[in-house]
Amino acid sequence: MKSTPVIQLNQVTKTYENGIIAVHPTSLSFQEGTFNAILGPSGAGKSTLLRMINGLETPTVGEVIVQGKTLTAKNIRQIRSRTAMIFQQFHLVSRLNVMTNVLTGRLYYRPWWTSMFYLFGKGDWKIAQWTLQRVGLIEKAWERVDQLSGGQQQRVGVARALAQCPQVILADEPVASLDPVASQEIMELLREICRQDGITIVANLHQVSLAIEYADRVIGLNRGRVVFDDSPQALVDDTLRTIYSATP
Ligand SMILES: Nc1ncnc2c1ncn2[C@@H]1O[C@H](COP(=O)(O)OP(=O)(O)OP(=O)(O)O)[C@@H](O)[C@H]1O
Ligand SMILES: [Mg+2]
Q: What is the pLDDT of residues 114-172, one digit of tens each?
């Protein structure tokens, strides 16, 4: 029996105010505990697609269903709490230490005013400690994040995402700013999280080789349309040409 998808996009489109159609009518669903890579040339609509999944962009038409609920202005905060995001530029607070950055992943679960004072409960600290152990950075807990290497900073990004206890992790080019070794380490970590915790991962990637090595499924986008959706083994030269072609 096929389980309910964790994420569903139903005939979703996105036209920006400047008239650019970033995503043409697209329907996609993502199953629990799967590692999904999105490939495509610059401007294909990868980030727009990902950002519509957690409401950072609102679809012009169509609906996004996350964890069985249609995304609306009312439930967006609740849905976002279980849909963590990892960014290319890490998006950490550089003047704060590693632990505090990870604890910000817990803010969805606390009253808004506690965040002004960085007030966290015992449970939050336990979770943050556990996630730092998980990404191998517990020794760095009290260091400022701007003193860490890029690879370490992205591991803080992963720990912060994990601290949300998410069902879904959306990663927008999570390794584009890292060297090859650090890139492999982050991809390994994401795969481990996907396999061990059953967290669904959707990652925009620019490196085809990483998609082939780590993803269960690859979605190829070109000019706002899905032009490939299959296992990485099906990515042959012809399909790659279609995904990256200038005139589809
Ligand atoms: N906020 C915005 N306002 C207007 N147009 C936008 C906005 N964000 C993206 N676009 C346009 O929408 C299209 C898709 O952009 P998007 O950032 O989703 O592509 P991408 O596949 O993530 O590209 P890249 O690989 O360079 O990150 C592009 O033509 C882009 O210029
Ligand atoms: Mg992008």
A: 555 566 788 899 999 999 999 999 999 999 999 999 999 999 999 999 999 999 999 99
Does any ligand 1 atom lie closer than 6 A to the CB of residue 233? Answer: no
Query: How remote is the CA of residue 143 from the centroid of ligand 1, in Å?
Result: 35
Token representation of residue 53: 């999944």
Residue 37: closest CA among 192, 208, 161, 178: 208
- pLDDT-derived band at 200 (thresholds 50, 70, 90) equals very high
Q: How far is CA 31 from the centre of its chain?
A: 15
Return the bridge partners of 230, or none: 218
Domains along the chain? 1-79+201-248 (3.40.50.300)
Q: Does any ligand 1 atom lie closer than 6 A to the CB of residue 100?
A: no
Q: Which atom of ligand 1 is nearest to the CA of 41?
A: 25
Pocket test for ligand 1, best of 16, 39, 205 (most atoms within 8 A of CB): 16
